[in-house]
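Researcher: Here's the sequence for the chain we discussed earlier.
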Amino acid sequence: MKRTTAIILTALTIALQSISCRNEQPKESKSDTVTAEPTNLSDFVAITDIVPDAILEVRYFGTYNFVGCRIDGYEQPIALLTRRAADSLRAVSDELKTMGYRIKIYDAYRPQCAVDHFMRWGKDLNDTLMKSYFYPREIKDSLFIKGYIAEHSGHSRGSTIDMTLFDMRTEKEVDMGGTFDWFGRESHPDCGGDPKTGTYIPNDIITEQQFNNRMILRNAMLRHGFKPYDCEWWHFTLKDEPYPDTYFAFPVRELYKASK
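Model: Thanks. This is the structure I predict for it:
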């Protein structure tokens, strides 16, 4: 009986969260701007220049992503961040290494043209190539309503990162109970428990170990100045981001080339 009650409570929490996620997307204001690149491009760095042992799997440079093709603006398989965010990420990495983990990065800075690509894809209801892999239970025309796709992304401000943990002992990704860019309740950080207290609630969606693995990543990021996102366990933004109102458009490639 207790387990049944816990499962019901978890389901209610998830349902409520699905509504709140719609309010977490970046909001445009009169001060928001889209610009080609920062005045000083040295404000951005390649993550591997700051965290040399970070593992990269830049999903939008390849075809294994929810669109199913390389995304506009990803010209090289590298990951960029503002220098301020990268320095904080280095502190996260240093801490996690003492626990036996490396960080694995799926996405970081995302140019505005990539977000525009997502918007065009979302409006083409006939393109469901990757539905079975990333949104099998979602109707495509609901992706805008639920906030999975929006006209602007915090990634374009340069201080947001999508990442997971890599276990150095097993030489495998840590099991988080869901894949990157999965459109659904399994991706929510509070799926299966309360992330603020780290308390697991028995449920039929993710295991206690999977929930605890998410907490290891989340807590390390919080300790070093990042804030989480209510809909995605892998998504974090530097609290003190240097460009809170600016969305950049320069492509993902080596910075010396981007500056020419």
